[in-house]
C-alpha cells in the first residue's frame, strides 16, 4: 500500500515494490541558505516546501495568510483558496523541489522577505513542466498570530546558456 500518497505501487507477479515519485522531504533547505536568516523563517520555508511536495493542505492552510496575494509565473494573481483547492484536488502537484539558493532579509521583527531559487517539476493537469524558478515570499506576523506568507511571486529563471526561458516563454533574443 502506498505511503502518504507519495509512492507508486508496482506489482510484479508476487512482488510489490514502492517507488518514490517525489524527492525525499529530508532534503535540508538550510543547506541552500546564503547569509544569515531568522531560524524561524528558514524552518517555515522548509515546512512550506514539505507541504507543497506532500500536498498537505492542512499545513499549507497554517502557513499561508487568509488574504494572500500571490502572482504566478503567468502573471495571474492567485488567492489562498485557489492554492489550497489546487493542492486538494490534485490539479497542481509538485513532483520535485530542489532548493539551490535561499536568501532572507529581515525588514522588522514581524516581517521577512525570502528569495528562493529552486529546480521544480510540477504537474498541472495533464502536463508536466520543469525548470528553475524563483520565489519571492513575504512572511509577516499578523496581530496575535505566527509568521505566515502574506504575499509572493513565482517566476521562471531564464537559462543563461541558451537564453531561453521555457517552452512557454521567450527564446533567443
How would you portray this structure in words?
The chain is α+β, with helices and mostly antiparallel strands. It has one domain: Nuclear Transport Factor 2, Chain: A (Roll), CATH 3.10.450.50. Helix content is 19%, strand content 45%. It has 3 helices and 8 strands, in the order ββααββαββββ. The protein has helices spanning 39-54, 57-63, 80-89; strands at residues 7-12, 15-20, 64-71, 77-78, 92-108, 111-124, 127-141, 147-156. The strands form 2 sheets. Strands 4-3-8-7-6-5 form a 6-stranded mixed beta sheet. Helix 1 (39-54) runs antiparallel to helix 2.
The gist of it:
The chain has 173 residues and is α+β, with helices and mostly antiparallel strands. It has helices at residues 39-54, 57-63, 80-89, and strands spanning 7-12, 15-20, 64-71, 77-78, 92-108, 111-124, 127-141, 147-156. The longest helix has 16 residues, at 39-54.
